[in-house]
Amino acid sequence: MNWNELADQPCSVARTLSVIGDRWTLLILRECFLKVRRFDDFQKRIGIGRPILTDRLNKLVDAFVLTKVAYQTNPTRYEYRLTPKGLDLYQVLISIVHWGDVHMVDKKGRPVLHRHTDCGHVFDPVMVCSECGEPLNARHVHVERGPGAKGAGRLPMEAEEPGPRSVPKMPAARRRKVRASA
Q1: pLDDT value at position 13?
Q2: Residue 32's closest CA among 6, 4, 69, 7?
Q3: Are 33 and 90 in contact (CB under 8 A)?
Q4: Confidence (pLDDT) at 147
Q5: How many of the other CB atoms lie within 10 Å of CB of 115?
Q6: Any residues with CB less than 8 A from the CB of 87 and at least 6 apart, and which?
Q7: Which of 51, 54, 154, 158 is the least crowded, having the fewest Cβ atoms under 10 Å away?
Q8: 81 pairs with which residues across the strands?
Q9: Measured distance CA(65)–CA(29) in Å, rounded
Q10: Is 96 exposed, middle or buried (0-12, 13-18, 19+ CB in 10 A)?
Q11: Helix axis angle, 23-33 relative to 12-20, nearest 10°?
Q12: 3-class secondary structure for the chain?
């Protein structure tokens, strides 16, 4: 699969990566959530070259993640603001921040803290089930074929069609017992 073909894949991860899947784009989005809006400010804060910054900002505008709003005329200058689609990426960015805070922090501690304005507490992001409210982790989630699935390529290995190298699927009663003990 070529990098340019990601947007056409029947996979939400691949399609998302086609928009935000490089380091510069993620750093631009980080700055957007820190209320940076102007080209020169992005360039100074990230240390990114003008051509790369121009390309990534245009890509985010084309994907409706950011919108350009003129803040000056003669010459016309723009600032870049998150759209509702862009604001929906907050959970993605805060999850990356949390992973970095857990696994990549140095002895001094977290470089920034996040405070919930409603309750006033510094928080750690937690992903919960939309139905029961319980915290989620990979061991307690089962991936199933959705209405947009094409083939078994994006399903867990155990769910793929049996083939010459496939492992027999565990009986349902045994899977429930294993899950209950995990």
Answers
A1: 87
A2: 69
A3: yes
A4: 83
A5: 10
A6: none
A7: 51
A8: 67
A9: 9
A10: middle
A11: 80
A12: CCHHHHHHCCCHHHHHHHHHCCHHHHHHHHHHHCCCCEHHHHHHHHCCCHHHHHHHHHHHHHCCCEEEEEEECCCCEEEEEECHHHHCCHHHHHHHHHHHHHHCCECCECCCCCECCCCCCECCCCCECCCCCCECCHHHCCCCCCCCCCCCCCCCHHHCCCCCCCCCCCCHHHHHHHHHHC
Question: What are the CA-CA distances from residue 69 to residues 63, 76, 92 (Å)?
Answer: 16, 10, 25
Integer Cα distance of 69 and 21 in angstroms? 24
pLDDT along the chain (182 residues), means of 10: 70 88 96 97 97 97 97 94 97 95 94 95 93 92 82 63 47 54 50
- The CA-CA-CA angle for residues 129, 26, 8, to 5°, reads 75
pTM of this structure: 0.79
Quote the pLDDT of residue 8. 72
Fill in the amino acid letter for 115: R
Query: Would you give the end-to-end CA distance of the chain in angstroms?
Result: 36
Number of CB atoms found within 10 A of residue 20's CB: 19
